[in-house]
Amino acid sequence: MGGAAGSGAELHWRALEGLYSSAPVNALFDSSLEVTGEGSARITFEVTVSAFHAAGAAHGTIYFKMLDDAAFYAANTLVTDRFLLTTSFNLHFTKPVREGKVVAEGRWVSGRRRVFVAESKLVDSEGEEIGRGTGTFMKSRIPLSSLPGYTA
């Protein structure tokens, strides 16, 4: 991307990555966020036995968290002044996952004013889709600039 607008977008994207890293909940996971462009984000994380349910595979909470985060950050690339809030999220489990690297890919679908829709998918280390979700996100009254970790 070139020009001042590109530079501003890049700064916003890097600040979103900083925001993700600074969230206390993310200290619980071996994960990282990469904003890959306007309307897209990728979270790479490692599933370990600490996230397993009693039957020896990752609990659905890890699916939800990573799908929600990837979709959320994809949508928040379009909003430079306010933090978005998840207002609904629908997810589908397609395959259990055990240990290993998983990637959550988020993609903005629609909305540019107050309500945003984004979708995400989870792919395991073999390249197979293991889950998919769609979320609705709404602008909050919380300025991004007021949040620790967000420095544009």
From TrEMBL:
The UniProt record lists the keyword Transport: no
Alphabetized UniProt keyword annotations: Hydrolase
Protein name: Hotdog fold thioesterase
Molecular functions (GO terms): acyl-CoA hydrolase activity
NCBIfam families referenced in this protein's UniProt entry, alphabetically: unchar_dom_1
Entry-linked SUPFAM superfamilies: Thioesterase/thiol ester dehydrase-isomerase
Segments forming a coiled coil: none
Keyword Protein biosynthesis annotated: no
One Pfam family this sequence matches: 4HBT
Signal peptide: none
Domain Thioesterase: 56-129
